[in-house]
Specification:
Oligomer: heterodimer
CATH topology of chain A: MetI-like fold
Distance between the termini of chain A: 13 Å
CATH architecture of chain B: 3-Layer(aba) Sandwich
Structural class of chain A: mainly alpha
Largest interface: A-B, 21 and 23 residues
Structural class of chain B: alpha/beta
Helix content of chain A: over 70%
Largest sheet of chain A: none
Order of helices and strands of chain A: HHHHHHHHHH
CATH architecture of chain A: Orthogonal Bundle
Number of domains of chain A: 1
Radius of gyration of chain B: 18 Å
């Protein structure tokens, strides 16, 4: 921070900078409606979307569907995090293990989670398991790959320090390798969370009777475009919120890293 | 020297090292021998690329593929060990551990209580008690290197190996660190081998100064420095030694 400008002023001006564009877009949007340029059925104005939002919030539908989607994401994401980090550490530490699993991983990785939907419906039906499985698949690979990467990037200079002091294997992994890999693991978790969130909506769009994706699909069939928008905006806002939470955790865990 | 006639210090005997790849082999050390009395300081000076850091890495056990032998208190060294403390060019502190944690990292198999006591004792010796809970990025270069020295000493090693430890510090801090190193050495009396490119530093600290040449990467000259400590960098004797060492560097130029 430069000069003698008050920190309050700086905070406000940075906030204005942050929200200016979204508000300008909203104003433009509403203006288009007022001028009668677009058909409300295709692009309902923000005021109507806000009303739909209030209605869905009021009758509890929005929170119910959001809650169901969040639960699915949590289950799938936690399973992916546990397995992805665990397997990532094992593969990062053992060249033999990595070599033996590499081809399978490389072949599975490019398959989009959505491509698994037909198969999971056959396997699990359209119940909870199929969604959680899709989410798991989506979040697993980014977490796994970033964990392996982080471990591979262990600083050789620190490896030498550990050798010089004859550090035990366990201590070497817990004090040198894992903390060093943590930034990369956190990147994987944040990316995995984003994919998980995208997967749940996609899975619910295809086959579900609840969840935020279902809400959107259901509203489209009823030609309630304003509710479609409510669903989409909720997805965006929730995704952003989840990332903020993970970023907070990341800051806390990696406080030692000097930011620039 | 003990009654069983075992040399208590460090010896390097006929050490050569060659890096080989498919096309050619490069000698990085050729037939290096030296002897460091227990409790004395040996300083190795030389231009960059003369193999002085490689020699230190051989003693530290970080290089394993070499000819010749290195012995400490009569036993032949193979690989790293906690009987040697190492201070690298850069402090190499783990950024996610506090100062305390970094020093404790070197210790193995002590009770938490004993560990902490030991860490605090060495922190006090390097004058950083107040920074125990700081993190490396909060320290100045000199402070970080003092933590590294405490980490190198905390196992009470027989030898402390220092690889151009003050090379990255500014001139004033460097002189201050040299004085502190001397103070630490007088208090603890470890055998010390220090690699440096600073001739004054070598004369100020060393009981012997070993000059290495880059031509054939071997020892060109060994001088023993018998001036009483603390040494006056401006005394005629100091200047004479400096001239003698400097002359070695320009013989093959």
């Amino acid at each position: 921070m430069k000069g003698r400008r008050s920190p309050v002023f700086a905070k406000i001006s940075s906030l204005v900078l942050y929200v200016f564009l979204p508000f300008a877009l909203l104003a433009l949007w509403q203006g288009l409606f007022a001028l009668g340029v677009v058909r409300p059925l295709l692009l309902p104005p923000p005021t109507r979307i806000a009303a739909a939002f209030a209605e869905l919030l009021g009758n509890g539908d929005l929170l119910r569907h959001l809650g169901i989607s969040m639960l699915r994401v949590c289950e799938g994401f936690l399973a992916a995090a546990a397995l992805g980090i665990g397997l990532g550490i094992a593969l990062g530490l053992s060249r033999t293990l990595e070599k033996s699993l590499d081809l399978v991983i490389q072949l599975m990785k490019p398959i989009p989670p959505i491509a698994w939907v037909p198969l999971t419906i056959l396997w699990f039906g359209i119940g909870e398991e199929s969604k959680v499985f899709i989410i798991f698949l989506g979040a697993f690979f980014p977490i796994l790959m970033n964990t392996i990467d982080g471990i591979r990037q262990t600083d050789v200079r620190f490896v030498e320090v550990a050798r010089v002091f004859e550090t035990s294997r366990w201590r070497f992994v817990s004090r040198v390798v894992l903390p060093g890999a943590l930034p990369s693991i956190m990147t994987g978790l944040r990316f995995g969370m984003m994919v998980a969130w995208m997967c749940v909506v996609a899975a619910e769009l295809v086959a579900a009777s609840s969840g935020i994706g279902f809400l959107i699909m259901d509203a489209r069939q009823m030609m309630q475009t304003d509710q479609v928008f409510v669903g989409m905006i909720t997805i965006g806002a929730t995704g952003k919120l989840l990332d903020v939470v993970l970023r907070k955790i990341e800051r806390r865990l990696i406080a030692w890293k000097v930011e620039f | 020297m003990s009654s069983r006639n075992v040399f208590a210090g460090l010896t390097v005997d006929g050490v050569s090292k060659t890096f080989r790849n498919a096309k050619k082999s490069v000698h990085v050390l050729r037939d290096v021998s030296l002897k460091v009395e227990a409790g004395s300081i040996a300083c190795i000076v030389g231009k960059s690329g003369c193999g002085k850091s490689t020699l230190l890495r051989v003693i530290a056990g970080l290089e394993t593929d070499y000819d010749g032998t290195v012995t400490l208190s009569g036993s032949v060294l193979r690989g790293p060990g906690r009987d040697r403390g190492v201070v690298f060019q850069e402090p190499r502190l783990l950024p996610w551990l506090s100062v305390e944690g970094n020093i404790a990292f070197a210790l193995q198999g002590l009770t938490p209580f004993e560990k902490r006591r030991r860490v605090l004792r060495y922190l006090k010796k390097v004058g950083l008690t107040k920074s125990a809970r700081s993190y490396p990025h909060q320290l100045s270069g000199g402070m970080a290197q003092r933590v590294a020295i405490a980490r190198g000493l905390v196992n009470q090693p027989k030898v402390l190996l220092l690889d151009e430890p003050f090379g990255a510090l500014d001139a004033l801090t460097r002189i201050q660190m040299q004085q502190e190193t001397l103070r630490l050495w007088e208090a603890l009396r470890p055998t010390m081998v220090m690699v440096t490119h600073d001739i004054d530093e070598a004369i100020f600290l060393g009981d012997q100064v070993i000059v290495m040449s880059a031509g054939p990467k071997t020892i060109r000259k060994k001088l023993s420095v018998t001036l009483p400590r603390p040494r006056d960098r401006n005394s005629p004797e100091f200047a004479a030694l400096r001239r003698e060492i400097l002359a070695e560097f320009f013989v093959d130029a």
